[in-house]
Specification:
Layout: H1 3-29, H2 34-37, H3 40-62, H4 69-96, E1 99-105, E2 108-113, H5 119-123, E3 139-143, H6 149-160, E4 172-174, H7 179-185, E5 187-188, H8 189-195, H9 200-210, E6 217-223, E7 229-234, E8 240-244
Parallel strand pairs: 1-3, 2-6
Antiparallel strand pairs: 1-2, 3-4, 5-6, 6-7, 7-8
Helix pairs in contact: 1-3, 3-4
Amino acid sequence: MTRLKAFSIHLAISAGIATSVVAIMLLLWYAPPFFSALGGKIVLMILVGVDVTLGPLITLIIFNPRKTRRALTFDLTVIAILQTAALTYGMSVVFEARPVFAVFSRDSFDLVTANMLSKEDIARAKDPDYRSLPLTGPVYVYSELPTDIRERNQLISSMMAGKDLPQFPQYYMPYDEHGAVAARAAKSIAELKQLNPRRSGDIDGLIRKSGLAEADTGYLPLRARFHDQAVLVEKSSGKILGQLDVNPWPRTATFSQGGK
């Protein structure tokens, strides 16, 4: 076997593995448009770039057909171990950064990732459905400040330390039971189109897909780590209709996750 052939075979195997990794990311953990909201392109370029190029390039550099079979087997085994370790580490980082909850509070959503919640946070969730993190994309939930004054003051003190309300699972409640609150906070589609004149077609397409008229729909901002987005909802019930990677904020008000 020539050096170039060994490189080509290794590259083909690495590309196949990378394709599987991308499929897992897009189908399970980072379904669009959450992929864009969390900077998935950057993560993907690093992860796939390392996996697809690192191993094959090392093979190209050190492969020598004059070596004994035993020596070649040892070299390729070491390369495979290094490449597998790098891929495993990268996948673990991607897994821990996956979106797990889209939390509505006050007048907008916040996209919460797995690494934003500690085990202690999750264990304190009052609703048992939220004491484990979803594996197949974020769950929409509702959250509000507690009515008990003492508890509210304690929460506000914790929030002043850097955590916002969406990062406290003990206050998560089913979104469907509180959709009317979100509906009252929804902004008009006309405003969203004014903010994104070049994306009017995409907005209209999502509305048509919902089967509703534009007058019966509205939108709510969603804060995310890299790109804030817009969540379209039914005006009467707050039902989630879909999500678009468009600007949800007036030009004079730019927000990022964690600040409201």
